[in-house]
């Protein structure tokens, strides 16, 4: 059964993107986010030990949470993250992994910037479109995209800090995806207490 990624994002409005340089720190980061109430966590495949991190965070995740994989580019990578227990897939662009993930029943938030890319991603089976990098056009651009595509769920990712977040939600974003402004250096061994404070701030802003 396909997990309802869009429903989870609609309920929480926040996708946390874990990317760092240390596997153990990334696992600690993911579990801390879940403990604070973040319910949708993505682990980027560009970091070391990403598959191990996905498996460990998924094992620690409370009921009602989703743990997925980001920067998934190829069908082979889809197989790898599925084996690690990923519950959804995120891509940075319109790539071959979208169709493979959809075939396996893994919901996909596919990266797109232009109208053509957004439409193509949905035609390939994406459950949502990750507007990336959202900061390039800001909330005004998101609103313009939604005018011809009101039924496409857009997740704004890239340069979304606390100050920018309300604008994207007001422009119709299903949710925002946040990496650096939320994670900081926690996934590379940084301060988990500071991470927890940032997580609480983002959860308050999206509630």
What would your notes on this structure say?
- With 207 residues, the chain is an alpha/beta fold.
- It has a single domain (5-206), classed as TIM Barrel (Alpha-Beta Barrel), CATH 3.20.20.70.
- 45% of the residues lie in helices and 16% in strands.
- The protein contains 10 helices and 8 strands.
- An 8-stranded parallel β-sheet has the order 3-2-1-8-7-6-5-4.
- It is globular and about 45 Å long.
- The model has no long low-confidence stretch (mean pLDDT 96).
Uncertain regions spanning at least 5 consecutive residues: none
Name the shape in a single word: globular
For the report, how would you describe the main beta sheet?
8 strands, parallel
* N-to-C order of helices and strands: HEHEHEHEHEHEHEHEHH
CATH architecture descriptor: Alpha-Beta Barrel
User: What structural class do the secondary elements suggest?
Assistant: alpha/beta
Provide the spatial order of strands within the biggest beta sheet: 3-2-1-8-7-6-5-4
Q: Report how far the terminal alpha carbons are from each other.
A: 28 Å
What is the mean pLDDT? Answer: 96
- Give me the count of strands: 8
Share of β-strand residues? 15-25%
Name the CATH superfamily assignment. Aldolase class I
